[in-house]
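Appendix C reproduces, verbatim, an entry submitted by the partner laboratory led by Prof. M.T., so that reviewers can inspect both the input and the predicted structure.
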Amino acid sequence: WVIKINHGNPQTQFDLAMKLIQGTWLPKNIETARFWLKNAARKKHVEANYVLGKAYLDGSLNEKDPSMGRWKLFMAAEKNHADAQLILGQHYADNLHEDRYGIKALYWLWRAEKSGKVVNPKLIETVKASMTEQDKVFAKITIESGKTPFPP
């Protein structure tokens, strides 16, 4: 196990990080957990990117950075992580005052629905109501193409 961690096995690094976050099997240690999560995420471990993304958004691992949170969630969402898609869509919907966030919100909420997540229809209507007609057309074309509109 130790050899796998030291040799860069991302799943083993992720597993260790989660044990350190939860305090199971090992004493709780958020700093060390964050270190191993970042290592696993650098190796494109989807769940590590998801956990880090959520933590950067809410500060639960003692480091709040919404920009990095969006990026990490994007990395997981692009790999079809349904929870990452939903949280990313909700985050953009909660921040509609930012430029083009309506398009991003609709796109990620649509991807989350396609992945089997339940999305509140009122949330989608709120997002649409905040958008210009031009952005609605762009969002429709983007969703129909299935291509990510732009990174976070």
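Residues 139 and 149 are 8 Å apart (CA to CA). Additional entries are available on request from the coordinating office.
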